[in-house]
Amino acid sequence: MSHAPLLKRLVVICVGMFAFAFALVPLYDVFCDVTGLNGKPSLEQAKQSTSVNEAREIDVSFTTHAQSGAPFEVQSHEYSVVVKPGAMREVLFRAKNTSNEDKVMQAVPSVSPGKAAKYLHKIACFCFDQQPLKAGEEVEFKLLFYVDTQLPEDVEELTLSYTVFDISRQIVASN
Amino acid sequence: MSSVTEQQHDQAAHHDGHHHPAKGFKRWLYTTNHKDIGSLYLIFSLTMFLIGGAMAMVIRAELFQPGLQLVEPHFFNQMTTVHGLIMVFGAVMPAFTGLANWMVPLMIGAPDMALPRMNNWSFWILPFAFIILLASLFMPGGGPAFGWTFYAPLSTTYSNDNTALFVFAVHIMGISSIMGAINVIVTIVNLRAPGMTWMKLPLFVWTWLITAFLLIAVMPVLAGAVTMVLTDKYFATSFFDAAGGGDPVMFQHIFWFFGHPEVYIMILPAFGIISTIVPTFSRKKLFGYASMVYATSSIALLSFIVWAHHMFTTGMPVAGELFFMYATMLISVPTGVKVFNWVATMWRGSISFEVPMLFSIAFIVLFTLGGFSGLMLAITPADFQYHDTYFVVAHFHYVLVTGAIFSIMAGAYYWLPKWTGNMFNITLAKWHFWLSLVSVNVLFFPMHFVGLAGMPRRIPDYALQFADFNAIISIGGFAFGLSQLLFVVVVFKCARGGDKVPAKVWDGAEGLEWEVASPAPYHTFETPPEIK
What we know:
The complex is a heterodimer of chains A (175) and B (532).
Chain A: H1 4-35, E1 58-66, E2 72-76, E3 80-83, E4 89-97, E5 103-112, E6 120-124, E7 131-133, E8 138-147, E9 157-166, H2 168-174
Parallel strand pairs in A: 1-9
Antiparallel strand pairs in A: 1-3, 2-4, 4-8, 5-7, 5-9, 6-8
Chain B: H1 25-30, H2 34-62, H3 73-108, H4 116-124, H5 126-136, H6 163-190, H7 203-234, H8 248-265, H9 268-282, H10 289-302, H11 318-346, H12 355-378, H13 380-386, H14 390-420, H15 426-452, H16 467-496
Region (Disordered) (chain B): 1-21
Transmembrane segments (chain B): 40-61, 81-102, 123-143, 163-191, 203-230, 250-274, 286-310, 322-343, 355-379, 391-416, 428-449, 469-492
Main location (chain B): membrane
């Protein structure tokens, strides 16, 4: 009996499963996007808001922290703001490179509670781009956002957290 | 199986005499004989078991007292990591592959494995994988120290430069198991003796067939995970790095998508061994053969939808936690069917307590105990307290040591006379069993208590209130470790000589493997046997 046909099929399964491991990466993002799980907000620019719900008020707080060793100080001017769903709001962040070398910064947003992540829309955000900061440089960054009118009723306050990474090394490595 | 022919063949008599094994080292290096390769796997696995065990002794010696006495914390972390890797990939999995190589062709009446040259290859790349892994321990910076689960970013951002060696070692181990699994599947599908229909297959063959499918489904996923770690660490990709748009939690999803089926890879063949041994020494047919086959298949299928129960504390939404909790608990139903069937097989049987049976009964009791602690861990709210404590360590050592390892011991004692033609020293073997049974419980049972009291795992030091229990655990550990040397003595002596055994070593045993002479001739079933 020839073993080749069965052998071929089994090898195809193996190769397929190896590819599947890598397919899990985009699948994971799609899954998080669709369900809004994991508090992973979109890094794309959102559409403008079309309506405002005057009846509700949502408390949005901001927190930032630098990933271990990243030489950045980033802080929002206001600790928290109160917004109406649908209404645009601008918040300024002050960012400083505390090292004496030129660095590139990447901020990664996360929303808590996680299920609110897909209802926080950013029109402009410094997290959309890599931000080069010269040694000791201090700059102002703008965040323009609104909360979706569809935000579930039980969410009264949410926190937008930024983790700031030093990606200078990765940039050098990929060039 | 009662359906196979009862008539005793004397295989040695019509063995044609040519194709004798080459002499010396070349016999083993070039061999394509399933029995030789089975022996190589088993010897390799025993060696790895002793090396991994020596690392466990270092861990227990350090934990004998609170405070840091013997080793640096970084070295301690290397010991826990490499102990886990060696025991999983070096001891348990090769032992089962070795048993499959030896027994599957004999049990289905095949002359050899279907792909003998690949069989040689799949064994001989294995030692190199472990040489690479073990060598990394001696290099500047040391070996892997991020736990056998190599969670990112521990294995990416915070690991040393030797991580590439770990990655390549895992790649080779994966390729070896995939080739072994493909060989088992092709052998079972294509080389069954005429008349050996699917529902006449011995259960060891069934469980191995299902295990082999699990292996080819998930080992490539593990290879993918280590490859992503490799490129994240050395080639500036960002699969698991949030700064570049990746997500470290995704690592855990990918890893456990492999990791949970992997734990069934390490226990399903054990179920097959126990289902072979219990009927022999109960002198009854296995109770519920068909339900055993279906239970094994459903465990294998369910194993793909429970992975996130390892990740309850990563901040999953409640709906996800509930799904994975209930799916996990569902697995206890087919597992319960199996335990029930073994007990029902023994019920009103005329039981005798030969060494393989002793290990099998210990397996049934202690594996069930490990299953119960697993059920406790499956309860999401309770898991928040148990997570990453010694309770988890107690759980998986009950299912892997008194589960998988005890079943391998049972299988080794059961088939050793068939392999060597000699009966082992029964007195020594009984000493090995009783010393192991007592010491393994002294070793692992108190871990439940220190775990519930909050002692974290993978830590070289601990709070003073855990001191007494840890001293007891360490004493149990040393006793268990030393007892295993008895096993080495028994196997060695049995290979050298002993009372000659007939073809059918155990009077209650059934199956084709007992119809060939003892020791099993180099070539068997060159003409397929007749199965009624």
